[in-house]
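dumping these here so i dont lose them again. two proteins, back to back, each one seq then structure tokens. dont judge the mess
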Amino acid sequence: MFAGTLQLGICSGVYDPDAPGKLRWAKEPELTGYTRRAMGFAECNGSLYVTIKPDIYRRIDGEQPRWEKIYTISEPLIAISSGLRGLRAVPRASGMIDFRDLDVKAILFLCCNNHVIPCQKCQDTYRLGWISHVEPGALPCPRCGTDLTEVVVAHAQTCRYWADHRAAQQPLSHAS
């Protein structure tokens, strides 16, 4: 169990049926010295991550666990922004989506039209319906032009509409 507090830091605890509240907290916090509150935790590939404006930290497990800063937003953030939040692990994109497949087009632009995907370069988010097809197999970011194809593939691996499509998938039909 981990908890992020502004005053104390990142605290860790374990289940203990004999402890008050059934949690036994470590005597000292694992990460301190930050000036903003922790906004989100996520586990990915066996590591724990936390976002604290404007940074992402990864926990290094061991007898003396520690946290290392792995990313900082480079552009200035407006004062009221919380920075990075809503942390979630998403499976790495593998395979390709055949954008010529009529079923794929239908799912992407009918079922997933309002689903949000991020651009890692410009740090903005977009609904799939806002992204135009300039050329087959390319989905450019409306703001910076970065190809978002890998992000769309990662979305497909977690979207319920795509899971139903894969379960019932038949040989692909291609548009000419």
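---- next one ----
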Amino acid sequence: MSRDESLVSESRPSRFERGLELVQSKLFSEALGYFDQALLHEHFQSSRIKSQCHYWLGECYFASELFESALLHYSLAIDLDSTNSQVFFDRGYLESRLKHHSNAIRDFDQCILLNAEYSWAYFHRGWNQFHLAAYEEAIQDFRKALELGTGDLILAAREWLCSSLKAISKFWLRNGNLELVVSYLEELVQLQDFCNLKYLQMLSGVYSDLRRHEEANEILTRIIDLDPRNSASFAHRAYSFYKMKLFDYALKDYQTALELNPNSEDALMGIEKVMAGKLKLQQKILQSIPKAKVVDAA
């Protein structure tokens, strides 16, 4: 967990000071005794310094994996001083570890209220929102973590943002709101390093269901570039060309699909549809030409 220098006071009791030195050396078990003695015997100049003592006790118990004791002392620290975002963050982080998702979210809410630039707080709040299936809220938090974050946080936030976008896309697909599905999948496929063919195919299918064939065609072209021996993708792109009445392109893609998979019924039926479509279009063109001109041409 990150640390806040404001948690160290320049005017601190000697036992407290010795406890902090042990913490800095990662001697948490030894530090516990000094902080306990400081609480029992030292006269604290302010409730804020006493709050810090409880906070560091919480940190030592956390490091020793004595989580219930850690929670107790984080809470005592907050009771004495509720203005430090780091204490809320660390208690929220521990609540997350214990899978107390609602409690964790409340702590991260308060942390962010006190420090709106605390990027990791957005990430961890989003992580807990995700595990409560509050995907929209999780998406907002992971976006904010990406906006504010650097380094490892960028990688973690992208990964969990993708997971949230996938989950909410599936939810709205089951519930029939295709426009929402498109909006989330479009964001997902922009995160190229973290997207796979499955979700590109899902997006192309939703575009097709919405009769947005040009957009479906663009995604299918991207899929084919990634997997040029995927017969189904050629057949699906051929269908989008067919719906756009680009019959020659459709025929070419259906033929490629058939070469890749000679047993493709979609390709065989598609070729028949394309040939019928071309014939119907030719007849329509002929019918639109005035009869006199047709005779002259003959």
